[in-house]
Structures are given as C-alpha cells and as structure tokens.
Amino acid sequence: MNLDNVPWCEKYRASCFADVKGQELAVDKVKSFLRQFPRKKAVVLHGGPGVGKTSLAYAIAAELDAEILELNASDLRDRDKINEIVKPASEQQSLFRRSKVILVDEIDGISSRDRGGLQALLKIIDDSSFPVIVTANDIWDKKFAKLRQKCDLVQLRDVDYKTILEILKDICLKEGCKVKEDVLTSISIKARGDLRAAINDLQLAGKHEEFEQIGDRNKETSIFSALEYVFKNAKIDVEMLRVFDSVNMPIDEIFLWIEENIPLEYKGEELAKAFDALSLADVFRGRIYRHQHWRFMVYEYFLLGSGVASSKKYNRTGWTNYKKPTRILKIWLQNQRAIRKKTICQKYARYCHISVKQAMKDWLLIRFLLKGKEIRERLKLTEEEAEFLDRKV
Amino acid sequence: MVNGSDVWTEKYRPQKFDEVVGQDEIVKRVKSLVNSVNLPHLLFAGPAGVGKSTLALIVVKQLFGPSWRENYLELNASDERGIEVVRQKVKDFARTRALGNVPFKVIFLDEADALTREAQQALRRTMENFTSTCRFILSCNYSSRIIDPIQSRCVIFRFKLLEKKDIKTRIDFISQNEGLNVTQEGFDVLYDASEGDCRRVINLLQATASISPNITPDLVGTIISQAKPSDIKVVLEYALAGDFVNAREKLLDIMLKESISGEDVIKAIQKEVWNLPIDNELKVKLTEKTGEAEFRIVEGSDAFIQLEALLAAFVLAGEGK
To answer: Is the pLDDT of residue A96 over 80?
Structure first.
C-alpha cells in the first residue's frame, strides 16, 4: 500500500495501548475489561467524534494479537452475514491460533425502529466466545438499554488541546512538514477535542501553503483586534467569517468579551439585534452540551462574529477602549462574600430536609427564624456564623 | 416576643400518617403499602410544601422505628452536582444490610426532576443494581420531567395543592401550642403570600412571631416586605429609560445577592410587564419576547446572556413608547 495517499488520520492510527493518547482512564478500563473477560463479553467505547474510539478498538486487537472482524451497523440487519462471521467465531476458536475480536463500529447508526439489528447484536454478544467491542457516540439513548446491561461502558473524553498539539507536532516531525507552532496551536484548539479533525486540518495545512500563510497573517490577532473588526465593520466578508480563527482563546471566553462590549458600540435597535445574535449563539452552545452535536460550533462562531457585526447599520470609526469581561469576577467576589451565608444555609437545609438552593432563596426569611440561641445550637452554628446572622443587612 | 427553641417546620412536621393533612387518599394508599412491608419504589409528584418529604420521612419512621436514621439516606438532586456523587453515595450506603427486620434500606432522592436525562438514565441503572438492598422514594414537581423508565419502575403519587382550610388547621394547631393570637385577616395575608406552600406559611408565621405573638395583617405585611426579593421592576425601568448598562448591573447584583436563578427572573419579568407604564401593544410584544427568552434559557447554556438579550429588547421598546 502506498502510504502517501492515505489520510494521516488513518496512517497514524494508534496500534497499541501506548499509542492511544489522552485516554489513560479509558485504556485502564479496557485493560480491566480484558482481564475479567468473559465476566462481560462486550465493551462499549463511547464518546464524541474523533476522540479515538475506533483507534482504541484496533489497539485492543493489536494488544491481543487478534484478528479484527468488523461489522458495521447495516450488517446487523443481515442475518447471513452475521452467521458467516459469528458462527465461526463461536465454534472454531480452538482451531485458530490467532484469537479474534469482533468490532461493531458506530452503533448509533442503527435506527430505533430497527429492533432486528439490535437484537442481532445482543445475540452476537451472547454467542461469541471472543470479546465484542461496540463504539457509539451516545450510549444513553433509550434504545440501547438492553445493550448497556450486557456491556462494560468505557467513556472516552474529549482530547485536550495540549495532547492534540503534541500529537500534531509528532506527526509533523515524521512527515517532515513544517507548520508554524501557532498554526498548530490554533488547529488544536479549534478541534475542540476531536483529534481526527485536528489531524485532517493538519494534513491540509501541510499540503497547502496558503493555509499556512493565512495562519501567518493572522497569527498575532488578539481578542482586541478581533473585537474591533466585528464591532467596526458593517460589511460581512471572508475575513469576518474567520475573525476568531486565530484568536487563541476558548470560545466561552469570547462569549464573555462580546457580551461585555456590545453596549459600548451599539444602542437601540443595533443593541437588540447584536444581543439577539449572541443569545442565539448561546442557544447553539446549549445544544452542543446537551446533544454533543459539535457541528453547531460553526454557528456559534458565525453568530458571534458575522451575526454581531451585521447588527449595525453603518461602519464605525475611531478607537474604542474595549473592557475585560467582569461578570465572572463579580460572581466570584459575591461567592466569597456570601460564604457564611452558604454554610448556614447548608446546615439549615440539612436540618429541614430541603435543598441548599431553596434555603439560599429563602434566606431573608430564614434570618428571622434563626434568631434564638437554642435554634442556633440545634443547627450547630459556629460563632462566626451567628455573628454573620446578627449583622445588619 | 416568641423566641422559639426550634424551627417550626421541623417541630411541627407530622410524625404519623394520621397527622398529615389534605392528602387523605395518598396517605391511605402509602400506609397500606408500608404495612405490607413489600415496598415498591415510590415517586411523589406535586408542588412545593404539600407534604412530599414529610410523607417520605413518615414511611421510613414507620418501617424502621427508632433505628430509621441508620437505614435512610436523603439526597437532594438539585444540590448533588453530578450523578457520580449520587451513585457513589448510594453505593456506599447500600453496601451494608439494613438493620432490623426490614430487608432493605430507603433512599429519598428529593427534587429528582433536577437531574438531566443522562443522569436519570444512570440513576435508573443504579436503581436496578441495588434493588435487592434499597428502595427509592423520589420526589419531583413535575412527573413529566422524569424519564419513562424510572416512572414505570415506581408507584406514582400525585400530591395536590393543600386547600386553605387544611393549612388553617395546621396553623391553628401551632398557634395554640406557641400561644399566638392569629386573626383571620392575619391568616389570610399569610396564606396569600405563600401560594399554598405550607412550609412557607409556617416559616412566615414563625418569622412574624419572632416580633410579636399578635399576628396581625400589618405585621405579616411588614415581614413579607422585608423578606421579599428585590424588585425586578427597577431593572426594567432602567432598560425602558434606555440605560442598558445600569439595567444589567442591577440585574446581576440582585441575582447574585439573593441567589435567584435566571428562570426565577424571567417569571418575575413576565408578571411585571403588565404593570409597566407603556402601551398595551408594547406589553404584548414584550411578553412575546419574554416567552422567547424563557425558551432560550431552557435551550441555551448561559441564562444571563438570554436575560441581557431580553433587556436589550426592553431598551428598544422604551424608545418607541
């Protein structure tokens, strides 16, 4: 096979446990699954796209020196195919020197209406005398209830950007391609835990020099110049679409910067429009958290940049002194100040069988109830706490 | 001045099935389940302060007698940050056998509807795993927020809002014991301020009694106004006057100091809109915006951003008023 035409994400797939980077916990869990086999006959590797589920599956096979039998979700409906693969696997084990591993990749693809497919998988697990590995993005779907009972569940976390960066550097070294460090960093951050996407981006960056140039040109972009670009220009162009690409900052922080500074530039209708764009970006963020649908990131960035920019009617000139976000600091300060209130509420909540949150909400009323010395002793309030209660509002 | 030696909501919490007011049908059925000793998982659904926790406590006291504390674990889902914590605590608790002659322990998971769907899925596994040693009593405000598989494993009881006469019975009992003089008008004010939440009525009563044993409408009114969260109206007035920056400062301030969630703020705004000095047409528009903001809070991840967006809409409306 000519490796030159192979995508790097395939070429550099992990081939043993040591190669699986950034998933130490998952690897440990898999090892323990293998040690205890056949207590559970199957293991589900689940996590977001590109975090290394399939790679880990191949690494397992390599570690066991086993042959991989791969089934994809559509095969599961095909009884003949299952018999063809599983029958030998369950019956002829002693005849083969090499052991086997059955891999069912991307089980999410199976439709919930298609009970047959899942039933087939459960049967495979029951019949197989070899380990079965299942990979999934979301294993908590209702339809996988039975499957979860039969399997060990191993979650793969999003790969953090430093690990991605190391891997990218390593690949660059092996490929002998020179990509600037800040481009690598930007790729690693943008990938948001998706290692495969990062490697694909890197391959593109290595091939196309102009990509590198873009990275070059923008490399010093600070959040301040990005804000200026968004807030001053009314025209939406290609630059605007990737205005945050070279800002070395997590997107959640970009949210805060935009939020803080919108009122410095916009008034009235523009203000409402800009906040509407920000608000929609946050809705997409919520959906990403909830459904792990990372593609929505595109819209987050789009709304934060072009969305906020297009709220204005005309170009701005002049210089604006953009402010650092203050909300997080204020929240922290308040929590520090209210630390006694919190400990009192914790004691009260425990005593009265309610949540601490509820107690915090009822605080103004609770102050009246905790006046008596006896009550305070009953709740085991400390002197500092008692003093805090006696303080004037 | 009545100083009080205990928190009344605890001092006067019903200890036996017969003492519970206003939930006769539920009490009867739960009592018969407990007497059969073979207790299923229970799901108590209903508004705040109608007796869900009280009934759960009575169940364990009936089951275990004096050793109930050793056999009972109370968790509050809105405080336990992740399902991992819940699972670990459940595991630790369930590892040892129950004391006495009941073959299981009881875990009370309060505000279970605060758990995400994923956490509920995990909880359901936990319920299955420990079913031989543990029974769960879950409480929630809305059973629709509990996933079907959990609902189907529980016997569901729907608590109704307490009637005014039921709460009156309880308040009369407390007043007699504490030597208070509660006028009918005084009680009316207490009741109206509490939206049928018995715990809140009792808290208000005790707070008022800490000033004087004569519970008059005026005195209750004073306490209520002192204990009332700050007015969200100020924030809206800033916004309508075009001062966005001060409006959001004030809003953040109130939310932080008084531990109010974004959803509470939205509720307050929605009620307040109709009292604002603006055209009715604008009120309709702003209520629509408020609804959209509430929806986006549920869908989004940072409630404060959604509230800011709503304030910006108020600023815009203020210009056109």
So the answer is: no
Examine the domain organization and report whether B235 and B217 are in the same domain.
no
Q: Enter the tokens of residue A85.
A: 């693969």
A316 backbone φψ class: left, alpha, beta (φ>0; ψ -120 to 50): beta
What number of other Cβ atoms are within 10 A of residue B112's Cβ?
29
Cβ-contact A21, A166 below 8 angstroms: yes
What's the CA gap between A229 and B32, in Å, rounded? 70
Residue window 106-165, chain B: list those with CB within 8 Å of chain A.
110-111, 117-118, 121-122, 125, 149
Q: Are residues B109 and B28 in the same domain?
A: yes
The pLDDT value recorded for residue A114 is: 60
ipTM of the complex: 0.83
Helix (H) / strand (E) element for A275: namely helix A268-291
Span A48-65, pLDDT tens digits: 888 888 888 888 888 888
Query: Which two tokens mark A152?
Result: 């060990």
* Helix, strand, or coil (residue A102): strand
Residue A218 is predicted with a pLDDT of: 36
Whole-number CA gyration radius for chain A: 28
- Look at residue B7 and tell me if it is in a domain: no
Inter-chain residue contact B312 with A364, CB threshold 8 Å? no
Q: Any idea what the CATH number is for the domain that residue B285 is in?
A: 1.20.272.10
Q: Are B113 and B169 in the same domain?
A: no
Which residue type occupies A300? E
Q: Which residue has the tokens 């109830």?
A: A369
Interchain pair A140, B121: CB under 8 A: yes
Number of domains composing chain B: 3
When the pLDDT of each residue in chain A is averaged and rounded to a whole number, the result is 82
Does B12 fall in a domain? no
Instruction: Tell which of B224, B245, B273 closes a domain.
Output: B224
Is the pLDDT at A281 greater than 90, yes or no?
Answer: yes
Write out residues in chain B with pLDDT < 50, as ranges. 1
Of the CA atoms within 13 Å of residue B3, those in its CB half-sphere come to: 7
Residue B220, in any domain of the structure:
yes
User: Which pLDDT does position A171 carry in this prediction?
Assistant: 86
Q: Which residues pair with B108 in a beta bridge?
A: B74, B137
Q: Which residues contact B126 (CB under 8 A, 6 or more apart)?
A: B86, B87, B90, B91
Interface of B with A in 67-86 (CB under 8 A): 74, 76, 78-79
> Coil, strand, or helix at residue A7?
coil
Nearest CA in chain A to B53: A353
pLDDT at B55 (0 to 100):
95
The domain of B174 spans 164-224
Domain end (from B125, B158, B191): B158
Residues of B with CB below 8 A from A151's CB? none
What whole-number percentage of chain A has pLDDT above 70? 86
pLDDT in tens, A192-236: 788 888 888 887 777 654 444 333 333 336 888 899 999 998 888
In a domain, B111, yes or no: yes
